[in-house]
TrEMBL record:
Its cofactor is Zn(2+). Residues 29-140 form the Alcohol dehydrogenase-like N-terminal domain. Zn(2+) 2 binds at C98, C101, C104, C112. Coiled coil: none annotated. Zn(2+) 1 binds at C43, H68, E69. It catalyses: L-threonine + NAD(+) = (2S)-2-amino-3-oxobutanoate + NADH + H(+). PROSITE patterns: ADH_ZINC. It comes from the Bacteria. It comes from Sellimonas caecigallum. It is an enzyme of class 1 (oxidoreductase). Catalyzes the NAD(+)-dependent oxidation of L-threonine to 2-amino-3-ketobutyrate. Homotetramer. SUPFAM superfamilies: GroES-like, NAD(P)-binding Rossmann-fold domains. This is L-threonine 3-dehydrogenase.
Length: 350
């Protein structure tokens, strides 16, 4: 359009909603890459921003462009950038790390103490163009369908969590059948787990989890986890637990159904009021690990190679809309009767 403006989904007012408006196209610094967005996916975080919950109110600046799950093509590179060229299909790591702290220097970027989130602490990918450092750009393999790359960020959360412990032959409990919990079930099964049991209250999502590889789904409104364990012949509790719900009841359920010496990875965000039965954690020798984001780039390699080795997570994408219908996409996510929702930006200027 020549006026150096672009369309973006912006948190324009401190209230529920996102607004499509014209904003300046971001500048490209010496080590940056400008990406023309093809497709984006809606994350639970985006829903929080949309609904303007308590977390969003004290985290998100009004005026921010949301979004951090995307795939697109390189349209400009800064003079200091090597390894990327115009036309490359790319996605990107959503945590922009400082590069200078001890963890960054040791190669543990996922634990950078000053990480800034794309679409959370800086303008995001729900826009025609996104500019990020070249060190955060992931080259897409042409053999993997483009829309899969739009969900590599949450797929990465699932991968980082599920692969934080050895899965081979283990009995795995996943609490919370949101899209990330469902993908984690698929990864656990793919990695050789024996029983992969996933709990939730939402039957739509439990059915989706079944489709992706969970061996037993448990609707806690209708069944008790202890009964299901008996039914599948488990006598000592779960070996590995992946807490994906953020629900205090989910975490408590998990802690009380692990084998002694069991291992738990926590991805679901618990509130400050969550009470944890530490007596059981201590006496049962449980191992609990917090998981944040993805490992850069270990998790990304694992995702790509698992997909190439036959892991099929494509059914997790249940809804596709044109970006002009973004409202329908958010409605689908908020209803709970959806997996991942992908928004197509290719006709934004039609």
């Amino acid at each position: 359009m020549g006026d150096n403006m672009m369309w973006a989904l912006v948190k324009e007012k401190p209230e529920a909603g996102l607004w499509m408006k014209r904003v300046p196209i971001p500048e490209v610094g010496p080590n940056d890459v400008k990406i023309k967005i093809h497709k984006t996916a809606i994350c639970g975080t985006d829903v929080h921003i949309y609904q303007w919950n308590e977390w969003a109110q004290h985290t998100i600046p009004v005026g921010l462009t949301a979004g951090h799950e995307y795939v697109g093509e390189v349209v400009e590179v800064g003079p200091g950038v090597q390894g990327f060229k115009i036309g490359d299909l790319v996605s990107g790591e959503g945590h922009i790390t400082c590069g200078k702290c001890r963890n960054c220097l040791e190669g543990h970027k996922e634990n950078c103490k000053d990480a800034k989130g794309v679409g959370v602490n800086r303008n995001g990918a729900f826009a025609e163009y996104l500019v990020i450092p070249a060190s955060n750009v992931w080259p897409c393999n042409p053999n993997i369908p483009e829309e899969m790359y739009a969900i590599f960020d949450p797929f990465g959360n699932a991968t980082h969590t599920a692969l934080s412990y050895d899965m081979l032959g283990e009995d795995v409990l996943i609490t919370g059948a949101g899209p990330i919990g469902i993908m984690a079930a698929a990864i656990a099964k793919f990695s050789g787990a024996r029983h992969v049991v996933i709990t939730d209250l939402n039957q739509y999502r439990l059915d989706l989890a079944k489709k992706l590889g969970a061996t037993r789904t448990v609707n806690l409104k209708e069944e008790k986890l202890t009964d299901v364990m008996k039914e599948i012949g488990m006598t000592e509790g779960f070996d590995v637990g992946l807490e994906m719900s953020g629900s205090p009841a989910g975490l408590s359920d998990m802690i009380h159904n692990m084998k002694h010496g069991g291992k738990i990875a926590l991805l679901g965000l618990q509130g400050t009021e969550t009470k944890v039965d530490l007596e059981t954690v201590i006496f049962n020798g449980l191992n609990i690990r917090g998981i944040y984001g993805r490992k850069v780039w270990d998790t990304w390699y694992k995702m790509s190679t698992m997909v190439q080795a036959g892991l099929d997570i494509s059914p997790i994408i249940t809804h596709r809309f044109d970006i002009k219908d973004y409202q329908k996409g958010f409605d689908a996510m908020i209803s709970g009767n959806s997996g991942k929702v992908v928004l197509d930006w290719s006709h934004i200027n039609d």
